């Protein structure tokens, strides 16, 4: 028997997955122990019910001890007094017991191990080549808490957690429609991570759902530990564009709004970040707060975000280009001030700008990874002390520091675009510093080519502006009223499917 | 990237960017007044409406470009038509790339040599030309929105200096001047050849698209001509980059002059035009040599005009190219004669004649 499982160094357990359970209990336990390499967290409790030997298998920490005692040990102990045969025990467990809401009958070792590692307790009975697995999960999990990365003023305060089932329930609680569908898959050869594809039947494109399923099933990774692991496989333009046409959200309300628009949500067990796809560029500028405010203010706030994006990407590059090559565009007073400030510094504006931007990124990176109390200190040291000292020592000019400050603030307006903004900003500074506005024009053309080239699952990233979809456009430059939204708008599916 | 079709609006924007670049770069030489030029441009646009009928009908009927259709008739015929298109696109790309490098060097104090200027623009356009036509269409739409904004900024800043009397109504020989303006406008419409080549790529009605394009083109040319000549008068026809000169005099609350905005948009329209020309050239090359890879054909299409323009630019002989007359014959052949011939010779027409 052991020969079959001799090569236990094979990490994917392919040699045991299809092995069926034996009739002999001792044999089954021996195979289990051998396959799992006497792992310390495997609990095997042997019990004799009547004259039948049984074993209850569970993984420590994954199954709840209390539930195990209440739902498994107690009923089985009571049953022992009746002295049932093996067939009577399995009959009771399979047909007459209500011990757990999640009950599965297993005939092979692959499924048995999978369920054990998911927090199930398995009951093996001597003389029966099957196991009854009861869902009594009791692993530690984080409670639903306030979203950390996507703050809103008036939106909901709950966020996704690391537990897949909790995340599914957060969606179901908001969309009580039978059209909401969850499909479960397993990805990762070692981690066997549960992945759930959520969509609204009739809204999301069936072709896209099938494509996503196909892509997920073909992933050959050992582990899937967060959304980032799946992005290269799901994002069709991952290596071709600086922008990502997928959004990672931790807000259930955002996810529900997107599902209503015909998008697809991919929930990954073990991470609070869920993937929404396909995403359009304009989605980065929408927040749940927009739908809590009056339309005029929401539209204003949206325009502020568009302006922030342009400022964050273009301002340092434009400043460098104008100061170095086209100073004639500045009004005379400003020109004199700028000239006076720049004359006092030893480096050309492009070097100053690059230095400050890199320094800013270092300080930001330091602040992000540190505890909040220390993170604040980093901001004070970086922003106030180094900034002030740099100006006073004449290393950088004051106007340049103002530009960097404005740019940094603007870039925080759009957290989802931050990685793209950071890289683009540096490209524009280099382009402006070496080619003036000519360089900026070329970089702008390349940027527009890059944005236009993103085409995800048949949806252009520039949609609904290009190609033009009038019904989606109302929620891009302004915020559509709820009467209009009630007619249903979408940015990702065809016009034909928009009809109520 | 999926192969997608262009929307009619995207094709129109693509052609408008190409046409605007020519007008923004230089007004036709030898015309004496703004009014004459505008009238000539209007007449020319009306004539072009008739000229584009065969090309748009052919695209609507066959949904194929003239080169592919010609290959369908016979291999040699196909080769001849494709080479004709290819040579014209390369010639236009050569003029475009040279103009970009020459005027950037001439007007804008940029810390780059002409070689670097040419290389930068060539690489950017090769990057763009390897993408799909729908991507070029979307880029052109955004760029054309930039053209409108730029014109609005310049016009707002120069509004005080505009005077209708500078249109210069006095003309010595009106018919001759008008004929010259009509011809000048026609010979600068290389976008007609582009329309003939790309009309089949749209997902709408090519005939409607051609009408909308010509109306928009007429309006945009009139606006630019009116803006510039109302301030500069007849000097507009002697100036290099006349809109730049106007932009330099255009002041607003934030900036002292608007030439920076002009440079930004002018270069972008140039890149869009050049990218479209390279994309079309690469398609022609692949028709001639189907074994050529996509990137290989784009690189070859990009390197030919670059290599041709560089010696003239480095030898400071580009002025001759700028003021050399633009031939109208290729436009007539590519946008009228070839599509008309293919239309007459199309299987549908043959079938009808048999019946």
Structure, described:
With 500 residues, chain A is of the alpha+beta class. Chain A folds into three domains: 2-135, no CATH class; 164-279, no CATH class; 292-456, no CATH class. Chain A is 47% helix and 13% strand. Chain A contains 17 helices and twelve strands. Chain A has helices at 14-17, 25-36, 65-80, 86-96, 109-116, 164-174, 206-217, 227-234, 252-260, 295-325, 332-343, 349-369, 372-392, 398-411, 418-452, 470-473, 482-486; strands spanning 42-49, 52-59, 103-106, 120-125, 131-135, 180-187, 193-200, 247-249, 264-268, 274-277, 455-456, 459-460. In chain A, the strands form three sheets. In chain A, strands 1-2-4-5-3 form a five-stranded antiparallel beta sheet, sandwiched between helices. In chain A, strands 6-7-9-10-8 form a five-stranded antiparallel beta sheet, with helices on both faces. Chain A has a two-stranded antiparallel sheet with strand order 11-12. Chain A is elongated, with a radius of gyration of 30 Å. The termini of chain A are far apart. Chain B has 355 residues and is mainly α. Chain B has one domain: Amino acid/polyamine transporter I, CATH 1.20.1740. In chain B, helix 1 packs parallel to helix 10, helix 5 (75-107) crosses helix 6 and helix 10 crosses helix 11. Chain B is globular, with a radius of gyration of 20 Å. The A-B interface holds A 237, 240, 322, 324-326, 328-332, 335, 434-442, 444-446, 448-449, 452-453, 455, 458, 460, 462, 466-468 and B 1-2, 4, 7, 9-10, 104, 108-112, 117, 120-121, 124, 127-128, 131-132, 134-139, 141-143, 254-260, 263-268, 271-272, 275.
> How far is it from the N-terminal to the C-terminal residue of chain A, by CA?
62 Å
Number of domains of chain A: 3
CATH architecture of chain B: Up-down Bundle
* Main pleated sheet of chain A: 5 strands, antiparallel
Order of helices and strands of chain B: HHHHHHHHHHHHHHHH
């Amino acid at each position: 028997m052991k020969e079959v499982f001799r090569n236990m160094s094979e990490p994917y357990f392919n040699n045991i997955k299809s092995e069926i359970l034996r009739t002999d209990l001792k044999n089954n336990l021996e195979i289990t122990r051998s396959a799992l390499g006497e792992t310390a967290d495997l609990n095997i409790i042997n019990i004799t019910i009547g004259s039948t030997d049984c074993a209850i298998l569970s993984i420590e920490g994954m199954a709840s001890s209390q539930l195990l005692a209440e739902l498994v040990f107690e009923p089985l102990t009571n049953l022992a007094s009746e002295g049932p045969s093996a067939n009577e025990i399995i009959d009771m467990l399979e047909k007459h017991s209500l011990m757990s809401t999640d009950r599965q009958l297993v005939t092979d070792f692959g499924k048995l191990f999978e369920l054990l590692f998911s927090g199930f307790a398995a009951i093996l009975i001597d003389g029966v080549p099957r196991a009854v697995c009861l869902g009594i999960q009791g692993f530690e999990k984080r409670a639903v808490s306030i979203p950390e990365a996507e703050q809103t003023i008036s939106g909901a305060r709950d966020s996704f957690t690391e537990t897949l089932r909790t995340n599914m329930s957060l969606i179901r609680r908001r969309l009580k429609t039978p059209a909401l569908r969850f499909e479960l898959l397993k990805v990762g050869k070692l981690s066997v991570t549960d992945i759930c594809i959520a969509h609204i039947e009739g809204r999301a494109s069936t072709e896209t759902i099938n494509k996503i399923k196909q892509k997920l099933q073909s992933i050959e990774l050992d582990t899937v530990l967060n959304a980032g692991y799946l992005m290269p496989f799901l994002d069709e333009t991952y290596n071709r564009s600086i922008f990502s046409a997928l959004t990672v959200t931790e807000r259930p309300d955002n996810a529900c709004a997107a599902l209503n628009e015909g998008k697809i949500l991919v929930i990954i067990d073990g991470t609070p970040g869920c993937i929404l796809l396909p995403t359009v560029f304009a989605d980065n500028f929408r927040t749940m707060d927009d739908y809590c405010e009056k339309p005029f203010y929401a539209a204003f706030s949206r325009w502020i975000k568009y302006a922030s994006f342009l400022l964050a990407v273009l301002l340092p590059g434009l400043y460098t280009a104008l100061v170095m090559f086209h100073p004639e565009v500045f009004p005379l007073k400003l020109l004199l001030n700028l000239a006076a400030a720049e004359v006092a510094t030893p480096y050309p504006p492009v070097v100053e700008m690059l230095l400050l931007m890199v320094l800013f990124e270092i300080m930001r990176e330091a602040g992000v990874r540190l505890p909040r109390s220390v993170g604040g200190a980093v901001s004070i040291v970086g922003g106030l002390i180094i900034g002030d000292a740099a100006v006073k020592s004449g290393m950088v000019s004051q106007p340049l520091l103002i530009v960097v400050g404005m740019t940094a603030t603007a870039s925080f307006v759009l957290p989802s675009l931050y990685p793209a903004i950071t890289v683009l900003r540096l490209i524009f500074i280099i382009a402006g510093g070496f080619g003036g506005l000519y360089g900026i024009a070329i970089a702008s053309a390349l940027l527009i080519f890059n944005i236009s080239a993103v085409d995800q699952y048949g949806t252009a990233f520039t949609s609904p502006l290009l190609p033009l979809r009038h019904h989606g456009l109302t929620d891009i430059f302004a915020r559509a009223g709820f009467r209009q939204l009630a007619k249903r708008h979408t940015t990702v599916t065809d016009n034909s499917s928009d009809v109520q | 990237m999926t192969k997608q079709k262009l929307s009619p609006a995207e094709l129109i924007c693509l052609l408008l960017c190409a046409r605007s670049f020519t007008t923004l770069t230089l007004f036709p030489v030898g015309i004496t007044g703004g009014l004459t030029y505008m009238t000539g441009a209007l007449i020319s646009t009306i004539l072009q409406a008739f000229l584009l009928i065969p090309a748009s009908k052919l695209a609507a009927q066959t949904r194929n470009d003239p080169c592919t259709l010609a290959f369908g008739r016979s291999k040699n015929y196909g080769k001849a038509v494709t080479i004709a298109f290819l040579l014209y696109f390369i010639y236009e790309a050569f003029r475009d790339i040279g103009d970009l490098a020459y005027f950037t060097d001439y007007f804008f104090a940029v810390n780059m040599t002409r070689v670097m200027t040419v290389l930068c623009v060539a690489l950017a356009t090769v990057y763009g030309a390897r993408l799909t036509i729908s991507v070029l269409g979307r880029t052109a739409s955004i760029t054309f929105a930039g053209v409108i904004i730029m014109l609005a900024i310049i016009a707002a800043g120069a509004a005080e200096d505009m005077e209708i009397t500078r249109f210069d109504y006095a003309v010595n020989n009106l018919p001759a001047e008008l004929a010259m303006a009509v011809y000048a406008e026609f010979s600068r419409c290389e976008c007609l050849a582009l329309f003939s080549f790309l009309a089949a790529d749209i997902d709408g009605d090519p005939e409607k698209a051609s009408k909308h394009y010509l109306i928009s083109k007429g309006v945009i040319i009139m606006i630019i001509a009116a803006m510039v000549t109302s301030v500069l008068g007849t000097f507009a026809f002697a100036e290099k980059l006349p809109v730049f000169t106007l932009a330099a005099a255009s002041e607003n609350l934030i900036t002292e002059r608007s030439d920076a905005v002009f440079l930004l948009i002018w270069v972008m329209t140039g890149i869009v035009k050049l990218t479209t020309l390279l994309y079309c050239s690469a398609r022609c090359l692949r028709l001639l040599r189907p074994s050529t890879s996509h990137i290989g054909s784009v690189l070859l299409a990009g390197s030919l005009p670059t290599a041709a323009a560089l010696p003239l630019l480095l030898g400071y002989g580009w002025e001759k190219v700028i003021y050399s007359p633009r031939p109208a014959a290729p436009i007539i052949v590519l946008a009228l004669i070839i599509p008309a011939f293919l239309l007459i010779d199309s299987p549908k027409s043959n079938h009808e004649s048999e019946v």
